[in-house]
Every structure is written in C-alpha cells, then in structure tokens.
C-alpha cells in the first residue's frame, strides 16, 4: 500500500465496523481505572466528556507503519502505557487537528510542517471521561523514524516506536481480551508487539483504523 492509496483510503467516509473478535480471559485488567473503550465503558463515565485529540502519524519509508509512544513510568495517569501523541483540546486550539499537532510537537518535537493531514476517524469515548478525536497524518514520504529527528519530552514520553503496517493490515493480529473489573467482565483490544503491550483506547483506535484500510 503506497502513499497515494493511503491518502484515498484515509480520506474516505467511514462507518465503524464490527471486526472479528478473538477473546482471551485474564484475571486482572492491565491498569486500574482504564477503560476498554466506547463499546464497553460508558457505564464508567460520569459528568461531561472532556474533548481530546490524538495524532495518528503514518511513516511512509521503507518500513511503513504507525508512530506510537510509550509514556514515562513516573506519570500519575496512564504511566508506562502505549499511546498516540495527543491530549486535551485547549480553548486556544482552533480544531482537533490543531490540538493534535500541538501535543505532538510538545511530546515528541514533531514539526507540524512535516505532517500532511489526511482526515479523521470517528470520536472514541473512554471510561475515564474523554472524547478522543483521532487525527490522521502522513509523515514525509520515504523517511524513516531517524530522519524525523524526534526528541521525546522526558516529562511525558519514554520512547517512540512504530507498529508495522503489515501487522496493522493483518486481521488476525488484534486480540479481544476479557478481564473482571468493578463487578463485571469487560473486554478490550490488544495488538501484538515484541516489546510493548498495546491495549485499551490506543488498541481500539488501531482496530478501527485497520478496518478502514482493509476495506475493498
């Protein structure tokens, strides 16, 4: 899948599908207080939702993939978890796109001029009370991770890495796992990676993204 085809698929109108599920039961959720996503978390939400945005950046080099970050271990929320660059939409942000680009610059020093905006996915609601807008972006064609000269903020990001496009396009890759939490069984997505545990809202957004890319 080249850059031109990615542009077409990412810009297309999108209805959330229902992907095939492989469920594995586990005793405990990976992190107390984290939500499994829009499909199984609305009962955890109280009060108004907080608007947020994340940037979903595509590397288009020799080894294409989606850029992800691992948060630092000392954070009070979501410590050590894998996420997209992003955060709350501030009053000064003109749009979800502006917020996602600002946060990516603050977190990993990604220059907004290097990002070609390519559309959005549907908003995603978490059990922690956020409504996340995933903003899709293409990074310079032919570049790899080293050429971006990223500098993760030591206060927020421990590492930047990529989930290969080949894994994202494999319908057998994501797994649906099941854990008992707050008196009921809840489900969440997990993506395979040799070094990182990709789960929760990040994994669910990747599932929705993969379904769009695999559509004929």
Describe the protein in words.
The protein is α+β, with helices and mostly antiparallel strands and 216 residues long. It has one domain: Alpha-Beta Complex (Nucleoside Triphosphate Pyrophosphohydrolase). Helices cover 19% and strands 31% of the residues. The protein is built from 4 helices and 12 strands, in the order H-E-E-E-E-E-H-E-E-E-E-H-E-E-E-H. It has helices spanning 3-11, 96-108, 165-168, 200-214; strands at residues 23-25, 50-59, 65-71, 82-83, 86-88, 116-120, 124-125, 130-138, 157-164, 175-181, 184-191, 198-199. Strands 2, 3, 4, 5, 6, 7, 8 and 9 form an 8-stranded mixed sheet that branches. The longest helix has 15 residues, at 200-214. It is globular, with a radius of gyration of 16 Å.
Terminal Cα separation, in Å? Answer: 12 Å
- Beta-strand content bin: 25-35%
Q: What's the rounded overall pLDDT mean? A: 81
**Large-scale geometry:** globular
Distinct helical segment count: 4
CATH superfamily caption: Nucleoside Triphosphate Pyrophosphohydrolase
User: Helix fraction?
Assistant: 10-25%
The succession of helices and strands, N to C, reads: HEEEEEHEEEEHEEEH
- CATH class reads Alpha Beta
List the uncertain runs: 14-37
Radius of gyration: 16 Å
Number of discrete domains: 1
Structural class: alpha+beta
- Tell how many strands the DSSP assignment holds: 12
CATH-scheme architecture: Alpha-Beta Complex
Question: Main β-sheet, in a few words?
Answer: 8 strands, mixed
Q: How is the CATH topology named?
A: Nucleoside Triphosphate Pyrophosphohydrolase
